């Protein structure tokens, strides 16, 4: 935003820019979620295989599988963080849009009072 008074055209441009960012963000969030789900499935599969393949006492199978799948888990965690970040960014842009809409309503009221 700016410290200078805004006119309705500037506000409409800002609203349009937010709407465009929201539109583009849908694809970004969808792709991030798809990647997270893929890596989550990969992790589940790798963990199950490692658990079943572990040769040792039954009570140690979980720990053996954890150790064996740490790298796959890290890939999954990074994908989850990217997905969550995309969601947070989308919510922030939606909040920015609401703020611009509020500013627009105030400016319209101000312009209407002057006429």
Structure description:
The chain is rod-shaped, with a radius of gyration of 24 Å. It has helices spanning 8-53, 61-68, 70-114. It has a domain at 38-114. Helix content is 86%, strand content 0%. Helix 1 packs across helix 2. The chain starts with 7 loop residues before the first helix and ends with a helix. The chain is mostly helical and 115 residues long.
Descriptive terms for the model:
115 residues; mainly alpha; 86% helix
Oligomer: single chain
Query: Total number of β-strand segments?
Result: 0
State the shape. Answer: rod-shaped
Number of helices: 3
List the helices and strands and how they pair.
Elements: H1 8-53, H2 61-68, H3 70-114
Helix pairs in contact: 1-2, 1-3
Gist of the model:
The protein has 115 residues and is mainly alpha-helical.
């Amino acid at each position: 935003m700016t410290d200078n008074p805004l006119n309705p055209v500037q506000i409409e441009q800002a609203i349009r820019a937010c709407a465009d960012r929201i539109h583009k963000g849908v694809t970004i969030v969808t792709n991030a979620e798809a990647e997270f789900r893929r890596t989550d499935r990969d992790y589940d599969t790798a963990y199950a295989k490692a658990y079943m393949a572990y040769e040792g006492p039954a009570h140690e199978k979980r720990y053996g599988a954890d150790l064996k799948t740490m790298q796959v888990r890290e890939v999954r965690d990074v994908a989850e963080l990217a997905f969550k970040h995309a969601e947070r960014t989308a919510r922030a842009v939606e909040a920015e849009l609401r703020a611009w809409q509020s500013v627009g309503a105030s400016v319209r009221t101000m312009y209407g009072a002057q006429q």
